[in-house]
Every structure is written in structure tokens, then in C-alpha cells.
What does this fold into?
Amino acid sequence: MEFETKLKDRMCDQISRWKGKWKRKGDEAKPKWIDHEVWAGLVRYWLDPQSEIRSINARNARYHDPDGLGIHKHRSGQTSFKARAQKRCEKTGDTTPDFLVLLDETHRNLMGLSLIESQRSSTRK
It folds into this structure.
């Protein structure tokens, strides 16, 4: 499981680097070991205007700093907030999830410390 998680993370980064090289060099950027059909599929995706819009929206969301406290990061991973809310309801038997608990679960740093609490304490100073 840990290997798969690292692979997904690294592969995403690698594809992003390929896209950057492709923008500069064109098809000369294709790694030799990649199947021609796979490369053609990536290029079609990169040329699709909707994929560029998704890319821009995702970048803007990652770097959004609405209150000047720094970029907000959540730890939800690939599970959407909606799916997490549904799982929480199934677990607790509630019809509506406790969104404060959900927010707290998804806004923690790698050490497990609440980002919400750290932001509150930094604004009180």
C-alpha cells in the first residue's frame, strides 16, 4: 500500500514534468520507453482546453490565500469531502455529519496538529 501511494504521487509529478518538456520541445520530449499510443493520449489530453482549465483551477485552488494567513492545506487526499461526510454519517448513524469534526480531520499537518487551531492562535497574538 505504501508503495502504491508513493507511486501515485511520483507518477503525477513525472507526468507534470513530461508536460513541461513537451510544451518546450514538442514530441521530442517523449521518453523512449513510453508506448507511442500512450504518449499520443497524453498529448491529446494536454491539448484539450478543458484539461487546461482544470489545471489552472487546481493551481489557483492550491495557491489561494484569502485571509493572508498562508496557503490552506487539507489532508483529505483523493477522498472528496462529500465522500468523507457520507462515511462519517454511516459511522455515527447521523443524517448530517458534524462538519467541524470533518474540517478538523482534513486540516491537520503531517504531525497531526490541527491547522485550524494553529491559525487561530496565530491571529490572537
About this structure: The mean pLDDT is 78. The two ends are 42 Å apart (CA to CA). The longest helix spans residues 2-25. Residues 36-64 form one domain.
